[in-house]
User: What shape does this take?
Amino acid sequence: MPDYDKSVFINCPFDKKYKSLYEAMIFTIIACDFTPRCSREFNNADDVRINNIMNLIRDCKYSIHDISRADSRLNMPLELGLFLGCKQYGTQKIKNKSCMILEAENYDSKAYLSDLAGQDFYNHQNKVNKMIESVRTWLAPKSPNAAVIPHSQYLISRYRDFNRNYLPGVLILKNWTKAEMSFNEYVVTIQGWIALNPIF
Assistant: This one.
């Protein structure tokens, strides 16, 4: 079981259009010495998806919720609501949970999630580099290693190196394709690269 204090629940779209942002988010979470968790780590079709999600929310101190498509995709605001309810009504340990709310551009969400007024929002502008910057800005200060976690420009360069010089070789070695990589395979691949090429 991953460490509760280092676990980050991911609530975001999983479609092809969002894939590059999703992968950059996962990389940044690991680069900041945390463990990404999401519903895609479960492969058992017999499991009830909402139960898996609620268990993940319970088991993660942190979570990242991208509501940039909440006007058309209701899963993201639902899972954000589950997180906020868990935090509000849970034990003292649960009440110390913290979440990041992402949108594409500043104030986009106000049109359809007005009840979240007063929450701090971050944006990614639908750009990989901005996603890395925003996730690093929010997450790094929460790490025991906050003082040595590099700033976003360095992480961006390391992410580029991972994609250009390491990932293609892994795909060839294992007879994998990037399109078919599972969440768990992608996480383990990043962790393996960082073990060989420490970020800090």
User: Anything to note?
Assistant: The first strand starts at residue 7 and ends at 11. Strands lie at 7-11, 35-37, 62-66, 98-103, 121-123.
